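Hey all, quick one. A colleague (J.T.) asked me to put the magnesium ion job into the tracker so the inputs and the structure tokens live in one place instead of scattered across chat threads. No bug as far as I know, just bookkeeping. Sequence used:
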Amino acid sequence: RRYEVGVIAGDGIGPEVAEAAIPLIEKAAVAAGAEIAWTRYPWGCDYYHEHGRMMPADALDRLAPLDAIFFGAVGRPDVPDHVSVWELILPIRQAFSQYVNLRPMRLLPGVSTPLAGRGAADLDMVCVRENGEGEYSGLGARYDQGTPEESAEQIGRFTRRGIERVVRYAFSLAASRPRRLLASATKSNALQHSMVLWDEVVREVAADFPEVEWRPYHVDALAARMVTHPDTLDVIVASNLFGDILTDLGAAITGSLGLAPGANLNPDRTHPSMFEPIHGSAPDIAGRGVANPIGAIQAGALMLRELGLPSAHDALQNAVEQVLTEGTVRTPDLGGVAGTSEMAEAVAEAM
Ligand code: NAI
Ligand code: MG
């Protein structure tokens, strides 16, 4: 069958890693008897300078009929980050009800971790991050700008429905994994409205999953636990902000931010899901051809799985792990000297 996939490569290293990953995703799909038709959308900071907005007014209408969206990264120093992120990636996540942000945090073979000796060999976690509301609801305002009385309010809006659906997804994911553990990131000692509701909903949903062993951790203690006892963690369910922070930490302890994939999932399949490396546009290394494409490639593997092509997922994922295990081709973030395209070519050969 034929799949329609939209590509928003974005800015900085976004296009570098996305274009390196696309031929590999294609190759895996074709080997599984599928076909992918790619449509590229040149949206991002260049588009912003030309048109005064990050994407056209009808962008969401154009993306809606697709089977999936493959995303690079967005953001550049010449456009304020709150503009680039709020006008491109967050509207897509929210409009398309991609309420689960699934972020595996697994130590791949051949990759070294700064946690050597701390149960790190068994490091296999996955974060289910709430992706549509919470701290990133966009509510709030600035007051009395430029005066000594200046202030700002940023409102985290949590709905029972919004918490419940993501927590349910996390519990069923935990139930499907061998260890059946779930950690809920909370902070209900200090956030006495939103996180108290979060805890209540988690407790209610837990009753439907007696086979899952779960417990809440305050997010600060959980961050510390990820470093000191990562082998005790399996599935982590977290709000939008907490999950954002914990997954960069998870990427760092599993070797590199450049390895980590993410899937913005609409589990109800009413709109396309979106797949991306979790890193940003990395202006510090953009344009040099040294970005690690593995995060984008693994995001492509997640996309193949969600499209219903598990054998294509496995082929691509196994090729990635073979290249990392061999260890001869590594980008600088993994201590090597290979460029983005060399790394991608090595994965292609392994496949
Ligand atoms: P970043 O993830 O772009 O970079 C953080 C550090 O990790 C940098 O030192 C970078 O060189 C390194 N890094 C990231 N990806 C890498 C890769 N594939 N290979 C090797 N090294 C890699 O985060 P930062 O610097 O906070 O943000 C840069 C821009 O990206 C900002 O405009 C920010 O708003 C945007 N951003 C966009 C995201 C998205 O599109 N989903 C997510 C995070 C940030
Ligand atoms: Mg982030």
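Adding what we noticed when we looked at it: The radius of gyration is 20 Å. Residues 244, 248, 278 surround magnesium ion (ligand 2) (CB under 6 Å).
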